[in-house]
Amino acid sequence: MICGYFKPKFYKKCKHLIKFIKIRLNIQRKKKNAMVSFLKTDIVEILKTGQEDDERAYIKVEELLEYRQMIASYDLIERCCDCISSNLPLMLNQRECPEECREAVYSLIYAAAWVRKVPELKDLRALFTRRYGDSIDAYINQELVEKLVWRKPSREFKVQTLQEIAQEAKISWDSLSKGSLSSSSSLSSKRRESVKKIFPYKKQGAQNDEQGHDEKKDESTVQEKSRLRGPPRQCESHKHKQKVFFWIIHNFFSLSLRRNFMVRFFAS
Question: What sections of the sequence does the record tag as coiled-coil (predicted)?
Fold first, then answer.
């Protein structure tokens, strides 16, 4: 017990962070498992109603697969944390990162940028990068990389997952009728597009007539408003300029008259 107080700072901080990371991972895993169970019950209810609601089932199963992938990534992160906890004494004795836990260290550094729900991963990343550097590309667990990056699954994989859920719930569900239904809907949409391509002019002509009518209506309203307003008013600045101009002319003529009077007076 007394020896635990004299452990290095790296050991104590790493142990503390890994403990809280595992707690947060368990909380997030429970939430995601609850969402998976809710989505499963929703999918079962949708499949029971019939083929017309299968598109909703495909949307729900995509969400379910995303949550499952998150749970798998949490399991891999927890496995990396366990590896570091078991190799902490070896990490203290060596300045370089030991080969036994190198993949776990650099995988956790990589995961810190993707798992925002576990903020302690960022603190652990700062601790590891200060000690070992950040050249992580060659040592990351590729399975964890695939689990952290979400890519939409293919239609076949969604169908396979829906069939598994239907078998668990003991529901007879066939995806072939849904495929024929979707193909017929796509054919009808193609027919509509071909009809639009053949007869595009009637609708455009009607739109042009409506636009011309609206333009004439706008012109008539503008003319009516201008008639009611009367002639356009002069701007205030223009009036001011006129006043200044007349004042200058008036003063000029009054000065010339005074000058002529004074010249005649002294001349006489």
Answer: none
Overall number of domains in the chain: 1
Model confidence at 220, pLDDT cuts 50, 70, 90, reads low
State both tokens at 136. 């992580």
Half-sphere exposure of 56 (CA within 13 A, CB side): 14
The model's confidence at residue 259, banded by pLDDT at 50, 70 and 90, is low
C-alpha 110/C-alpha 165 separation (Å) is 34
Question: Does residue 44 form part of some domain?
Answer: yes
With a cut of 70, say whether residue 131 has pLDDT above it. yes
**DSSP H helical segments within the chain, as ranges?**
2-5, 9-49, 54-86, 88-93, 102-111, 120-132, 142-148, 155-168, 176-198, 201-229, 236-267
Kindly state whether residue 256 falls inside one of the protein's structural domains: no
Give the integer Cα–Cα distance in Å for 38 and 87: 39
Residues 6 or more apart in contact with residue 82 via CB below 8 angstroms: none
